[in-house]
Request: fold
Amino acid sequence: MVPSNLTVSCYKISEEIIRSRPWEETLIVGYRELKLFDEPFPTWDQILSGDPESPRLPKESWRKYMQPGEFALHFKHFQTSQPIGAEGELLAQPNGYCRVFDSVEEANEHGSGVCHQHPVVVCVIYDSSGKLVKRIYNRKKVTWFAILMWIGILFWLGILTLAGLALAASAYFVVAFLLGVKNPTNLTLPGYVWVIILMAALALGSYGFWTRIKWKAKRRVDKLQAAISPEERKYFAQLNTLYGSTEPAERERFLKISEVFREKVRRTLRTNKK
Reply:
């Protein structure tokens, strides 16, 4: 049976059996769903063209439909914290929703079941005033993701340090050769000096990696600029004057030119990859 205190409103009413822990008694939970936003979001074209008539980014409106003593369960992606569906599906931002329960126990039980079935979801419980009550997540999934992330960070730090050591060692042997040092490998240094050397090697490797990225980016920019003819450059320059225009026809022209420009960039970069 559905609990007698199930809140009935104009919003969607749902009943659900949660079996997040097989050894515990099955709990029948009733909830209603609320949209996170009432007002529309500006479209991508409105943002891109700088449309002065586009709506502002709306604020969350779910709290004004909450009753004292109710608790809202929000669903967020465990990596990005962006709103997602209760089954882990991606949602356009205006379509985000939360589920409202009569007690924090019901919200907690429901959230535990969702996180158990869909590990990418983090459930966040808020009270009717918007105060954070509890975060629920799949501890195994999140912990494993954190471990892999730190392994990746340490791996690349190690690679950069080894690269820096290789550069520093090469420079050392070159200098030793020029100075006529007979046995450059016979070197005894205190521990703190080696720490300084490792830190310097990491900094040197990081600088080399950053320099390589900067060089590759500059090459791509130079090739893109070389691929744009003077006539195309003049055509694309219209974007600077059309942006933010109040005239619908000019905004349409802005979007058309910007699409041509993006296609030009895509083709040029695709050609360079080949």
The first strand starts at residue 13 and ends at 18.
